[in-house]
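Tokenised fold entry reproduced for absentees:

. . .
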Amino acid sequence: QVQVVESVGDLVQTGGSLRLSCTVSGRTFDDYTINWFRQTPGNQREGVSCISWSGRSIYYADSVKGRFTISRDNDKSTWYLQMNNLKPEDTATYYCMAWEYDLWGQGTQVTVSS
């Protein structure tokens, strides 16, 4: 059974940093785009960032551009979202997913205190 396991989120202060990761277990597969989404209660899921299989195509939402960095290690089937200069409005549940396979992580809570 394929699983996507996300790292545990955290409570951080404004201006702090946190790195989220997702690891695929159960089988390996190739050529998929990684997406990071986030969601707060009562709101729609927001696309944060995505990265192609090769890593050459990357997208960031305007709200995180310049602060977040997406990356991936295909050999380890692991994906990362480095979040710097965190703001209270970054508080959300963060989800990773492999687009072409519709595989989702379980979600992890990130809380940024003011």
In short: The two ends are 40 Å apart (CA to CA). The mean pLDDT is 95. The chain has no helices and eleven strands. The CA atoms of residues 4 and 24 lie 5 Å apart.
